[in-house]
Structure formats: structure tokens, C-alpha cells
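subagent[fold] <- orchestrator: predict structure for attached chain, return C-alpha cells only, no commentary.
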Amino acid sequence: MTPGETLFDSLRLGRTLGLHLLEPFDRLRRAALGRKDLPPLWLRRHTGPLAEYDRAVSGTETWLDRLGLVVPGDLVIDLGCGAGSMAAALGRRIGGTGRYVGIDVHRPSIEWAARRFAGDARFRFETVGAASPYGWRQPAASRPVSLPVADGGAQFVLAKSLFTHLLEPAATAYLSETRRVLEPGRAALLSAFLFESGSRADRGLCSWFRHPEPGHPVRFRFRHRPQAAVAYERSRFVSLVEKAGLRVQWICPGFLPGNDRSPRGQDLLLLGH
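subagent[fold] -> orchestrator:
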């Protein structure tokens, strides 16, 4: 681990400890708002303020319904599910005979979500043993991505805010597994930060995703913590999708920074066989 990575980890640990200290106050706030279903503050740290947490969930729900991606009886996979922010919404759509499988590398989030939904046999949460700064530290080659679902066994795959934290080897592995488990004729919905070289959005993006040098097809915000925020040149990401045996059915642009200091949203991609 480099000195920069060590410093980043120390700052991240300090932030987590601080959020743990604030948890009693956040618990009272959740109770006052009638939101006991929310994970504790330290598990919501990646989603930002409560309003952003709710907005991300409701925005995804809108697309699920608009595109008719989930129907009763489906088996759905929620990749990068965290503490299960989308679990209840997907549970309402799969009905009493459907099944939900939440996958994440962060064990504390998976354990909290499993406790929350312990009384509902439709829900299953598992930690995937893939190398990640948010989970296992072993080299990626020693821990390949393997989803606990049979070939073609899933009718829908969601990957909300997962590929924004994956470099190419991990992104390729998750796309290949998505292709393997997805039933032909059904779809996967994922989000990413995409850019087109030379465009106005690209110029704005370069001020946010500063590394490595301009012109590189895969960019990230922090030199010593690349997976904190990753952006792909659009054509590069589409090529990864196609090499995995999937195809892009449509892309809904979301990253339109212009002169903003931060991204407004993530691009959405609908994938199929």
C-alpha cells in the first residue's frame, strides 16, 4: 500500500468513526421522521444526505416502471446493493412468488440488510468475494467475481452506482457474470459516468475526474483511490459491454456537468443479450 493509499484509508476510517459517534442522533432523527427502515448513518455515507438517498431510490423506481423491467415472479439481482436501498422497492414489484438477491463486497452493509429483511424468505443477501478497497484486499486474480445464481436464472439485473467504482478488470468481470445469469430476452439496468472525448461534457468532466492525464479512456477522481469515482469514455465502456456478450439497447445521458463543480447524475444503460 502506497503512502497516499494509507493516508486515504486513515481519513476514511476517521470519517467512519465520526459517523458512528453521530449515530445516536441520526437514530432519533430517523425515528422522528418515521424512517426506521433506513440503514445507520455510517452505512449511508456513500449516498450523501438523506434527500439524495431517497432521490436515488425514487429515480430508479421511475425507470423500473417506465420500462416495465420487473414483473411478479421475477428473480432480480441487485449488484452493489449496499445496505439494500432498492430491496423494498424491488420486493414490491416481484410479488409474493419472486425472489431478490442482493450482492455487495461490503460485509457490514450485507449483514445489516439481511437482518432488516430476515422475516421475508424472498430476500437473500450475499457478500461477493471479489477484490475491492470496499471489501476484500486480495489481488483481483485470486478472487474472481462469481454470482450465486444459475446460468440464465435471473430475469433482471440492477447495478446502481456500481460501475462508477469499478476499473476495467472488475467491470469486465461483472459484465460477464451479468451476461451469464441474465435470462435471454430480459434486461439489465446499470449506471455509469460516461464521457465523449472533446465534448463540452468532457471538458467539465476533466475538472472532476482529474486522473490520469487528459485523453485517457478511463478516468478517476482520486489518484490514490481510483475506485472512489470512475468515469469511462463512452465507446470504451460500450466495447466492454459487447465483449461480455451483451448489447446496449439505449443510454440515457445523466452526466452533464457543464460548469458545475460536481456531476449532476449518472448515465443509465439498458443492456440485453
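orchestrator: received. Logging for downstream: The longest helix spans residues 3-32. Confidence is low (pLDDT under 50) at residues 136-142, 256-260.
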